[in-house]
Amino acid sequence: MHDPFPIPPLPLLQRLVTPLSTRLSLPTLPLHVHEVFLAFTLYHLTCTQISPRISALLFPRHYPKLSVRTRINWDVHVVSLLQSTLINSLALWVMWADGERAAMSWQERVWGYTGAGGMIQGFAAGYFLWDLMVSWKYLDLFGWGLLAHAVSALVVFSLGFRPFVNYYGPTFILYELSSPFLNFHWFFDKVNMTGSRPQFYNGLALLVTFFSCRLVWGTYQSVRVYQDVWAALQNPGTDHRNSTSVPGVSPPLHYSEEGGIMRFAGPQVIPVWLAITYLGSNVILNTLNFFWFGKMIDAVKKRFTTPNEKLEVKAEVKAKENSDREDGQTIVVGERKRKESSRRRKA
User: Fold this and answer.
1) Are residues 104 and 167 in contact, defined by beta-carbon separation less than 8 angstroms?
2) Sign of the alpha-carbon dihedral angle for 233, 238, 241, 246
3) Is the pLDDT confidence value at 238 over 70?
4) Rounded CA gap, 91 and 132, in Å?
5) How many CB atoms are closer than 10 A to CB 210?
6) How many angstroms separate the CA atoms of 241 and 257, rounded?
7) What is the mean pLDDT of residues 106-119?
8) Pairing outcome for strands 267-268 and 238-239
9) Who wins on pLDDT, 346 or 102?
10) Contacts from 320-329 at CB under 8 Å and sequence distance 24+?
11) Residue 110 and residue 164 in contact, taking contact as beta carbons nearer than 8 Å
């Protein structure tokens, strides 16, 4: 399937990025650099210009009163909401409409390329490039976890331009199906709707989609990509345009077509660094997903505890503070007695 994006690549951007794509062995990047650029620009303008104006207009009693740090966080959540809605819609449409993708063999899933898959890679890479910039700029606000997520995601989707496992671009971007609910959950807190019925239903939807899309679907698709990469590692140096050199392996579909799925594939060997980088980034993303799911459960539970439970929690915190204070006083008294005893011995 050809790239369905209506705007063709800009020759100037292609010329500018070609030396980089050649150096990094990303031959399909010039075909989608305009999508990377447009996505990055859209999200940057949304964060710095569009979100502050629209948010102040829609939430005049809340947004202007937020601290500077919280307003930055708000604008980033607006970008995340926009991005997840856009990329999920595109990915689901590509998975439904791209017949070539549905018929791919393992060779084509590893080395193949379609324009529609490249479009998903382009828009995803543009977002994660922006996400990396923001995570680094506001590291004290978002922390090392989100920075690691941005780096890993950018690496995974950029490698699709080799092309390498281009097939899995739309698959893994569906992690973002849970992001709209995550963003709304955060917004509810900021507009004084914490513990409300809408936040409760949204929280349930968040946990269900996060568990289904990231933990179940994501883990299953990770196993599939590991299997495909392992198959490629077991058949090094295969010319995938003529896979009959591998006994018992059927030729991949479209391998003889001019400009077909395998047009960027030739005698290929997966370098060790490539397998480690891609699979390692995938492991980091999956690990973060399991870690964040536990945090989400705790966050949702805290917002919907009963008043009695809240009082019990406060009592426990106060008791702990009193215990710590008593322990500190005991240490101080003990230290004074030790010094007095020492002075007596010297006298």
Assistant:
1) yes
2) negative
3) no
4) 22
5) 23
6) 10
7) 91
8) antiparallel
9) 102
10) none
11) yes
Alpha-helical (H) ranges within 98-196 are 99-102, 106-111, 115-137, 139-158, 168-173, 179-190
| Stretch 257-267: mean pLDDT | 69
Any residues with CB less than 8 A from the CB of 304 and at least 6 apart, and which? 195, 200, 203
In this structure, the dihedral spanned by the alpha carbons of residues 177, 182, 183 and 184, taken in order and rounded to 10 degrees, is 100
Q: Residues 214, 293: contact at Cβ < 8 Å?
A: yes
Number of H helices, E strands in the chain: 14, 2
CB atoms within 10 A of CB 294: 9
| Dihedral of the alpha carbons of 305, 309, 314, 317, in degrees to the nearest 10 | -100
End-to-end CA distance of the chain: 94
Chain-wide mean pLDDT for the chain?
83
**pLDDT over 70 for what percent of the chain?**
80
Q: Kindly write down the DSSP assignment for every residue of 26-91, as one continuous string.
A: -TTHHHHHHHHHHHHHHHHHIIIIIHHHHHHHH-TTTGGGS-HHHHHHHHHHHHHHHHHHHHHHHH
pTM score of the predicted model = 0.77
Task: Give the separation between CA 250 and CA 328, rounded to whole angstroms.
Answer: 74
State the DSSP code for 238. E
Alpha-carbon separation of residue 175 from 44, 171, 332 (angstroms): 22, 8, 53
- Which pLDDT band, with edges at 50, 70 and 90, does 81 fall under? very high
SS3 248: coil
Structure tokens at 338: 């030790």
What is d(CA 27, CA 211) in angstroms, rounded to the nearest whole number? 35
Q: What is the mean pLDDT of residues 136-160?
A: 90
The per-residue pLDDT for range 152-207, each reduced to its tens digit, is: 889 889 988 989 899 999 999 998 999 999 999 999 999 999 888 999 999 999 99
Per-residue pLDDT tens digits for 275-288: 888 888 888 888 98
